[in-house]
Amino acid sequence: MDVKDMIRETFYISHGTPMMAINKSVPARSFLKGWREEVYSKKPKSILVISAHWETDLPTISAVNHSDLIYDFYGFPAPMYQLKYPAPGAPDLATRVQELLTVSGFKCALDKKRGLDHGSWVPLMFMYPDANIPVCQLSLQSHLDGTHHYKLGRALAPLKEEGVLVIGSGSSVHPSNDTPHAVGVAPWAAEFDNWLEEALTSGRYEDVNNYQTKAPNWKIAHPWPEHFYPLHVAMGAAGENAKAELIHRSWEHGTLGYACYKFTSS
């Protein structure tokens, strides 16, 4: 691998609502559109996405030659179901991920049919609109804990040296749908989000792994963990002494958090 192809960063992005694909008023949309100019200009060889919207018993990697889109949302405007993102699959990367996880003691599987869910294709439409970078996904195990997902990430750390961009895609604050909207940012949401920023940027990764004993209001912010665990994978893949940086923060309804983080390896 050429040194210039090596990657030092991993990312956690908040993809929020699928409506971002067609709704220009979602603030995170312009952030993602400016990705290559303002956040990360290097073109990766391939992309591994850990999306909130794929949960399995065992870590599973999508291994297809071409990724069909999964429209995994219901009752949205018709144009949402016409959107395309014809990125190539990354079967070689899938095999490499399987190899790294197996060596680290994880039982895992390949899925040779599954396409990209909206946790991948909606943000990638804006980040890499040419759809010319191979993409595969790795699933979550939402019945397990943050430490499991951090260790998954640690196993994937060598991918950076191979030119693979590791992206966790979730939402920094993701309450249940019946949570009342707020004028401004709901205080409980701001408190959790500020705790997360402080913990990450001061390197308290163990606190983030054990957020259920450390974080304020976590039961409202993440009643289910699937939108949070992609962060743990990205954090782990950056390595032990990685530096975290908040690169975007916005809100929808004052309760859905769009904080995004960059992790840079030491």
TrEMBL record:
The keyword Zinc applies. Keywords: Dioxygenase, Metal-binding, Oxidoreductase, Zinc. InterPro entries: Extradiol_dOase_DODA, Xdiol_dOase_suB. CDD domains: 45_DOPA_Dioxygenase. The keyword Cytoplasm does not apply. It is an enzyme of class 1 (oxidoreductase). Pathway: Pigment biosynthesis; betalain biosynthesis. Its EC number is 1.13.11.29. It comes from the Eukaryota. Its cofactor is Zn(2+). It holds the Pfam family LigB. Residues 10-263 form the Extradiol ring-cleavage dioxygenase class III enzyme subunit B domain. It catalyses: L-dopa + O2 = 4-(L-alanin-3-yl)-2-hydroxy-cis,cis-muconate 6-semialdehyde + H(+). GO terms for molecular function: ferrous iron binding; stizolobate synthase activity; zinc ion binding. Belongs to the DODA-type extradiol aromatic ring-opening dioxygenase family. PANTHER family: 4,5-DOPA DIOXYGENASE EXTRADIOL-LIKE PROTEIN (PTHR30096). This is stizolobate synthase. It comes from Phytolacca americana (American pokeweed).
